[in-house]
Amino acid sequence: MRVFHFDGAAEEDVHLDELYMQEALRLAETAFKEDEVPIGAIIVSQGKIIGKGYNLTERLHDVTAHAEMQAFTAASNFMGGKYLKDCTLYVTVEPCVMCAGASYWTQISRIVYGAKDEKRGASKHGHLYHPKTEIVSGVLEEKCADLIRSFFRNKR
Ligand SMILES: [Zn+2]
């Protein structure tokens, strides 16, 4: 007897999203160890990680060195083109206005983020993403938020 799970595909997507977010979290943990605001990002295309980044604003003395910006650059280099079609960005914290704007130019297919950024998140400023970009939030939200919280707790 065959059993059909009609929502099987959706469940698999959720599982994959968590798996990839785990990878982004590992990068965020590296940032944490380097005393950077702990945010990590990866870009996945057809089951393959084609770009990675974590926040490096302190090390590079560069306010634009957000995790997403580096992942975009790496992924575009890999793709050999500026558009990131059929790609998904996984980032542990909601993108800021700058990174949402950069994602617009890439026309990336999906953005999956973990924790919301109540102060600097792009969603506070209307819809800045490309109309073709699907946004998913709240994947491993607690883990992503915990890392940020413990970072700033140590700073006080
Ligand atoms: Zn940003």
UniProtKB/TrEMBL annotation:
Any one Gene Ontology MF annotation carried by this entry is: tRNA-specific adenosine-34 deaminase activity
Write down a Pfam family by its short name: dCMP_cyt_deam_1
PROSITE patterns per the UniProt record, alphabetical: CYT_DCMP_DEAMINASES_2
What are the binding positions for Zn(2+) in this chain? H66, C96, C99
Q: Which InterPro entries match?
A: CMP_dCMP_dom, Cytidine_deaminase-like, tRNA_aden_deaminase
Function in brief: Catalyzes the deamination of adenosine to inosine at the wobble position 34 of tRNA(Arg2).
Quaternary state and interactors: Homodimer.
- This protein is called tRNA-specific adenosine deaminase
What is the originating organism of this protein? Sphingobacterium bambusae
